[in-house]
Amino acid sequence: MKNVLIKIIAGLAYVAVVVVNFLANGLPINNRSTGAINAYSNLFAPAGLTFSIWGLIYLLLAGYFLYQFLSSEKESNQKKEDILKKVNIFLSALRFSNISRIFA
Questions:
Q1: What is the Cβ-side half-sphere exposure of residue 78, based on CA atoms within 13 angstroms?
Q2: How far apart are the first and last CA of the chain?
Q3: What CA–CA distance (Å, rounded) separates 76 from 52?
Q4: DSSP at 46
Q5: Where are the domains of the chain?
């Protein structure tokens, strides 16, 4: 079980981004949902159609998160662990930037 800390950080980042995105639409944060932000002309908010696929994206990311912990040790090798480490670092950075975007 190499890279366990990075896997845990990646998992916590996933949970954090799902919670923040849920709260951004459920509360909403600063009395504006993420969909309402599109009313303002800016370069950061994606088109409204883009928001329709987030559920599928989060479902697939949850599958990846489970895959990395549930894959058997027999299948695990150094090359696979190195790839998972690089992907997890990248995905964690993306998730934290997504959270930052919502608060910005």
A1: 0
A2: 37
A3: 35
A4: P
A5: 4-103
